[in-house]
């Protein structure tokens, strides 16, 4: 899909200096993927502790005691 973007030249140049073997397209795609990963991590972190009264598996309890 072709899209025209108005990007901050300084930010793009800084990213290109960090990743000189990447194209501008690859830099933008990396940024989009990272935004998605951040969102997924936040969603997963929000689930932590949402299940009440869960018991630790017996094997995990034994390892914890050792």
Indicate the proportion of strand residues.
under 5%
Please outline the major beta sheet.
none
List low-confidence stretches. Answer: none
Fraction of residues in helices? Answer: 55-70%
Protein structure class: mainly alpha
Could you characterize what this model shows?
The protein contains three helices and no strands. The protein is an all-alpha fold. It has a domain at 7-49. The model has no long low-confidence stretch (mean pLDDT 85).
List the helices and strands and how they pair.
Elements: H1 9-18, H2 24-47, H3 58-65
Short description:
64% of the residues lie in helices and 0% in strands. With 66 residues, it is mostly helical.
Task: Label this structure with key terms.
mainly alpha; 66 residues; single chain; elongated
